[in-house]
Design goal:
binds aspartic acid; alpha+beta; binds magnesium ion; Carbamate kinase; binds adenosine-5'-diphosphate
Length: 587
C-alpha cells in the first residue's frame, strides 16, 4: 500500500462524464489499497473563460480579484469529483488550497509555494478519505495577517501536485493528462511524435520551458530538487507513461519549498578558444556548412551563438577546446574564402557556468552572476543561458578569480564546484525531444559599450522588472566607436515592460537604441547526450537548411540547441528537425 498523489488536468475532467470516468480510475487505485490525494484542474477551458469574463470588464483587472475569480474554477471540479467518488461508494472529501494548507508567497497570479502544512491532510487520510485538492491555488498571509487566495500561474496544478507529493513524502506523483506521457514533441504539431519512457528532470525542465507545455516547469523543478518521483500518464489508458528521473534529492529545508537554493553547481572549464565571424551572409545553409565542415574535421564545438545584424549579415561565434584551435582555424579560413566575412580567434579563454533548477523564472540569478563578474572587472566574451545553466566565456587568466567570486556570491560549497570536469551525457541520446515556442520576441540593443558591466546592467534592470531573457548574443562586429550590439529574446508579453525599463539605461549610452527584430519563433532540441555527441548542432542546422529555412539566431547551452527562425517557418522547422533526428520512429 502506497501513498500516491494523482493529478488530473482540465481535459481529463472536462465534462460530467469524464469526471465520472476519472472517479472510476481513482476507485480502481483505491481498490489496490493505496492512500490517495487527488489534485484537479478546472474543467476544460474554464480558466480561459473566467479570464475572458474579467477582460470583458477591464483591460487591467486587479490581480487579487483575478485570483479570487480563477480559483473558483478548481473549486467546481473538486466538489464534482468528490461527489462522483462518494457516488461510487468511495469515502472522499474535497479541499481548497487554503483548507489543505498550501501556503504561498503573496504575489498574486504567480505565487510560489512556501510550505504545505500537512496535518489536516494526514488526519483526513488516516480517517480513510480520498482527499480531492484544488490545484493551482494556495493561501498567503497578507501584511495584516489575514488569509488571501493566491494562484500559482497558468498550468500550476502540476506544481500543486508535486508540492503535495513532496511534502507528504508520497511514493510518486502521477500526472494524468490527455496524451500518453511526454512525447518527443507536441503531438498536436507533429502527429508522428513518439512517447518517451523516461527522461531526466533537467531535460524536461528545458523542454517544458521551451514550449512543451505538458508539464508546468516549476513542477519539474520541485521534483528535481527533492527527488520526488514524477510520472506523466494518460487519463484514458492504464499504460505506464513517462517517468522523470533525477539525481538530486535534498530534504525540505527552512527556506520555503519553492524557494530553495536556486544555484547548486559551478563549473570552470579552462583551455577554451573562441572563434568569431562577422559579416557572414544571412542565408539558409551557412551555419550548416560551417559546422558540418568542423564536425567532419573532427572539431568538437561547445557553445555556439549567432545573431543577424544590420538586416543582412550574420555574426557567429563558438568555442572549442584549445587543442582544436589550429584545425578549427584552418577550416574557418576556408569558409571565409568561400563565403566572405571576417574571422577572429582568441585563445586563453575559460567557460564559467552556474547550474541549478531554480535559474529558470528567476532573472535575478543571471543578473547576479554578471554583476559579480563585472565587479571583479571581468569582461564577458560570450554568454549562453538556459533553464538550468548560465555560462560565460571569459579570459582564462581571470578564471580562478571569477570562480571564487561566484562561489561566494551563491554561497556554494566545495563539493558543488568543479574545475575542468569531464564530458557528461555519454551513452544518452543527443536529442531526446524538440519544442517550439511561438511566444518569443527578438530585441536588438544597438551600440552598447564593450566593457565589463554592460550585460550586467541590461540583465539586472530587466530582472528588477521581473523579465527573463534568453539567447543573449553580443555581436562580433564593432561599431566605429567600439560599441557592439546585443540581441536577446524575451516573452512577447514582456516586450513593452522591457522597453520602458531600459529607457534610462540606454540614455546613458551614447548612440545606443532598442530595435525590434522581425516576428520569430524559437525551435529547440534538447538531449542529455548533446555534450558527448559531436556534430549535433550541425545536424540541426542541416535539417533547417534542407527545408530552406533561414536561421536568424542560434544559442546553445549544454543540453540544448535553440534556433530562432521566422514565425512563418516555425512548424516546418519543428517537423524537419523532429524527423531529421529520427524522433518520428519508435525505437
Ligand atoms: P492538462 O490539462 O492535463 O494539464 P495540458 O494541456 O496542460 O494538459 O498539457 C497536455 C498537452 O501538452 C498535450 O495535449 C499536448 O498537446 C501538449 N504538449 C506539448 N508538448 C508536448 C510533449 N512534448 N509531450 C506531450 N504533450 C505535449
Ligand atoms: N486551471 C489552471 C489553468 O488552466 C491550472 C491548470 O490547469 O493547471 O491554467
Ligand atoms: Mg497542464
Amino acid at each position: 500500500m502506497a501513498l500516491l498523489v494523482q493529478k488530473f488536468g482540465g481535459t481529463s475532467v472536462g465534462s460530467v462524464q469524464r469526471i465520472q470516468e476519472v472517479a472510476k480510475k481513482i476507485a480502481a487505485s483505491k481498490d489496490l489499497g493505496h492512500d490517495l490525494v487527488i489534485v484537479v484542474s478546472a474543467m476544460g477551458h474554464t480558466t480561459d473563460e473566467l479570464t475572458n469574463l474579467a477582460k470583458a470588464i477591464s483591460n487591467n483587472p486587479p490581480q487579487r480579484e483575478l485570483d479570487m475569480l480563477l480559483a473558483t474554477g478548481e473549486q467546481v471540479s473538486i466538489a464534482l469529483l468528490s461527489i462522483a467518488l462518494n457516488e461510487l461508494g468511495i469515502q472522499s472529501i474535497s479541499m481548497t488550497g487554503s483548507q489543505v494548507g498550501i501556503v504561498t508567497e503573496s504575489s498574486h497570479g504567480r505565487a510560489r509555494i512556501l510550505e504545505v502544512r500537512t496535518e489536516r491532510l494526514r488526519t483526513l487520510l488516516n480517517a480513510g478519505n480520498v482527499v480531492v485538492v484544488a490545484g493551482f491555488q494556495g493561501t498567503s498571509l497578507s501584511s495584516v495577517g489575514t488569509a488571501e487566495i493566491t494562484t500559482l500561474g497558468r498550468g500550476g496544478s502540476d506544481t500543486s501536485a508535486v508540492a503535495l507529493a513532496t511534502a507528504l513524502k508520497a511514493c510518486a506523483c502521477e500526472i494524468y493528462t490527455d496524451v500518453p506521457g511526454v512525447l518527443t514533441t507536441d503531438p498536436r504539431k507533429v502527429k508522428e511524435a513518439q512517447l518517451m519512457q523516461a527522461l531526466s528532470c533537467d531535460e524536461m525542465l528545458e523542454l517544458a520551458s521551451l514550449g512543451a507545455a505538458v508539464l508546468h516547469p516549476r513542477a519539474v523543478e520541485i521534483a528535481r530538487n527533492y527527488g520526488t518521483k514524477l510520472v506523466v500518464r494518460s487519463s484514458w489508458t492504464n499504460e505506464p507513461g513517462t517517468t522523470l528521473t533525477s539525481t538530486a534529492g535534498r530534504s525540505l529545508g527552512r527556506e520555503g519549498l519553492e524557494l530553495g537554493r536556486p544555484v547548486d553547481g559551478l563549473e570552470l572549464l579552462e583551455n577554451q578558444s573562441v572563434l568569431g565571424f562577422a559579416h557572414l551572409p544571412d542565408q539558409p545553409g551557412v551555419a550548416a556548412n560551417l559546422f558540418e565542415a568542423l564536425s567532419k574535421g573532427g572539431v568538437n564545438v561547445d557553445l555556439i551563438i549567432q545573431a543577424s545584424h544590420e538586416g543582412n549579415s550574420n555574426d557567429i561565434a563558438f568555442t572549442v577546446h584549445a587543442e582544436a584551435i589550429n584545425k578549427a582555424k584552418e577550416i574557418c579560413e576556408h569558409v571565409v574564402k568561400q563565403l566572405g566575412g571576417e574571422l577572429s580567434t582568441q585563445s586563453g579563454m575559460a567557460k564559467l557556468s552556474i547550474s541549478g533548477a531554480g535559474i529558470m523564472g528567476r532573472p535575478g540569478i543571471a543578473a547576479t552572476l554578471f554583476e559579480t563578474l563585472s565587479r571583479a572587472g571581468i569582461n564577458l566574451r560570450l554568454i549562453a543561458t538556459s533553464e538550468v545553466k548560465v555560462s560565460c566565456v571569459i579570459d582564462s587568466k581571470l578564471g580562478v578569480k571569477a570562480q571564487r567570486a561566484v562561489t561566494d556570491a551563491f554561497e556554494l560549497n566545495d563539493n558543488q564546484v568543479k574545475i575542468n570536469p569531464g564530458v557528461t551525457g555519454l551513452g544518452e541520446p543527443a536529442v531526446r525531444g524538440v519544442a517550439l515556442d511561438p511566444n518569443q520576441a527578438q530585441v536588438n540593443v544597438r551600440n552598447v559599450p564593450d566593457k565589463p558591466g554592460t550585460a550586467a546592467s541590461l540583465c539586472s534592470i530587466l530582472a528588477d522588472a521581473g523579465i527573463s531573457i534568453d539567447a543573449i548574443v553580443q555581436s562580433e562586429r564593432k561599431h566605429q566607436n567600439g560599441g557592439r550590439d546585443i540581441t536577446f529574446t524575451l516573452k512577447k508579453s514582456d516586450r513593452q515592460i522591457a522597453g520602458a525599463a531600459l529607457t534610462s539605461l540606454l540614455a546613458k549610452w551614447p548612440n545606443s537604441f532598442l530595435e525590434d527584430g522581425p516576428a520569430i519563433t524559437r525551435i529547440s532540441a534538447v538531449g542529455a547526450g548533446m555534450p558527448a555527441t559531436a556534430g549535433t548542432a550541425a545536424r540541426m542546422f542541416r535539417a533547417l537548411a534542407d527545408s530552406n529555412i533561414n536561421i536568424a539566431m542560434i544559442a546553445t547551452s549544454e543540453i540544448r540547441t535553440s534556433c530562432v527562425v521566422a514565425e512563418k517557418d516555425g512548424l516546418a522547422a519543428l517537423q524537419a528537425v523532429h524527423s531529421h533526428f529520427g524522433l518520428d520512429k519508435s525505437n
